[in-house]
Amino acid sequence: MNIRSAAVLLVFAAVGLPLMAADALPSRPKAGPVEIMHLKDVKPGMKGIAWTVFQGTEPEAVPIEIVGRLKNQNGPNQDIIVAKMLGKAKVTNVAGGMSGSPVYIDGKLVGAVALRMSTFSPDAVCGITPIELMLEINDLDKSRPDDARTPEKARSRNGAVSVPDGMLDYPVSAGPMPQPMMVPIEAPLMLSGFTDSALREFGPMFQQLGVNAVQGGAASDIQSNKPAPGWEHALNPGDSIAGVLVDGDMSVTGLGTVTYNDGKRVLGFGHSFFNLGPVDIPMSKGEVIMTLASSYQPSKMANATEIVGALHQDRFTGIMGVLGAESDMIPVTVKLRSLDDKEKLTHEKDFHFNVFVHQKWTPYLMMLTLYNSLSELNELADETTYRLSGKVELDGAGLSLSPISLSTMTASGEAPMPPPLAMAAWWGNMFNRLYLNNVNTPNVKRVNVTVDLLPERRVATIESAWVQEPEVRAGDSVPVKVFLRPYRGERIERDFTVKIPEGLAKGDHRIMLSDADTVNRMQNMAGMMNRYIDLPQTVSLLNQERSNNKLYVSLVESTPTAYFDDKTLPSLPASVLNVMQAGRASSRTVVTSPETATEQMALPFDSVVTGSYSLRIHVK
Description:
Layout: H1 3-23, E1 47-52, E2 60-70, E3 80-85, H2 89-92, E4 101-105, E5 108-117, E6 125-130, H3 131-135, E7 182-184, E8 187-192, H4 196-208, E9 211-215, E10 240-248, E11 251-261, E12 265-268, E13 277-292, E14 299-315, E15 318-323, E16 329-339, E17 345-356, H5 361-375, E18 385-394, E19 404-411, H6 419-435, E20 444-454, E21 459-467, E22 471-472, E23 477-486, E24 492-499, E25 507-514, H7 516-529, H8 535-544, E26 550-557, E27 561-564, E28 567-569, H9 574-582, E29 591-593, E30 596-604, E31 608-610, E32 612-619
Helix pairs in contact: 5-6
């Protein structure tokens, strides 16, 4: 090579070096203290970099150009920064799962990508929550927001979802609502191991809470709620972060992006998850499978991978988690057994999963997971009857609490609700009653439930009854015959004997034959009317609940009964009843009945028993 050629190469090299330096990719952000750019210093035309994961686990740099500020967009003194996302984001648009993507200008942290333009915007225009607002989360106490998004705040659009004790009962406005220009990026709620039927029934509720529920990434690889090794170096700014509501054989996880990590505490999303306030949700790393480009609903498809801590705050401007922290979850085992018409086992399947603990979300998630378990079976048919037995074990923490034993049957009938959904609603209601007592928060250790699938509709209605001799004496044993009409087949006849108590007063009385709802009604009403019923009383009421596959025989007297909390006080003198009613506060109401029904026996039927019938007797 001659000197002239060498000189030419040196010239090109000298020109090329500045170009390469200008185009060099910025280094990705790391955990640790970072200088922030205050909102007052952010000006239109500034250029910066956002970091988010498009595929895999490594965040990529996305050029950002500041457009301006929207004053009071999210409320008083809640300005947001409007910006355009360039580069790869121009193709994908502002996708679900980008919530929390950190934005830097001149190496200073500005905030988190948290909002986007309304549906069908052709430009990747985003709203940035200032980091100053997000850092306030660290200073918040245990107060709970009034506008937390919980299942009872929404209603299914098709009206098909029935949920525990008034959940979804609030009406939704029929009129059109004004559409904001900027809306929070929907945090994709990935449901793995769930059927189309489960998404169809429960998806509308999630949508009304601002969450896009989709079949997607799994958390089935998560086998423990303990932080995985290496958690100390997890969740750097720009990484994917997930809140785990359910994990195991089926999973529910909410995906977003990490905004800030000071080495211990992590901020993300730039908007709320459910705005629940103080929470205790397992926090995991995420792996993005792909980012779906769309002008309508772009979203990341991702897996939650391994637990690295716990989310402790879910606030309006973001979520806050602590690395290395551990969250309690409720281990649930669901055993499904298919039986033939001779009750012989033909198939068995077990599901194991964990549910996060929250007084309003836990009952709903229990309902969702049981319904999904029942919907996965090939044996499912319209005429199927479901027989459930379950046990809920509690840690009393100084209280004497026995396990809760639950039993019921569900079969198809005239109601439009399918039996699996009806059974799941009943199951969710039991947990709703347990968690919504106003005195103690339950500590559920584990849940075990067995559901038998029977290949026919087993429903029997009490049709009539007959007593051999209506004139009786105290101490007599009275033969009684009852007739039930099944869904199909011959009338069922059952004989039994009622023992008339020795001390029963002379006069007219009744032998009442009834279903479980009739016997439970007054006691359940008393429990609901007491606003301060505690956990032991709630457990006692649940354990006293009669099962609907039995016929209950009661002797009815014309003396008043008082129902108070979990206790039944029969045959009370009028003077005692007056004193009880006068001495109670309005929040602890005594429910009374003009009659006393003393349960004599429960006749088991392997069918759903409905209806009631009374026989009059006269004690001589």
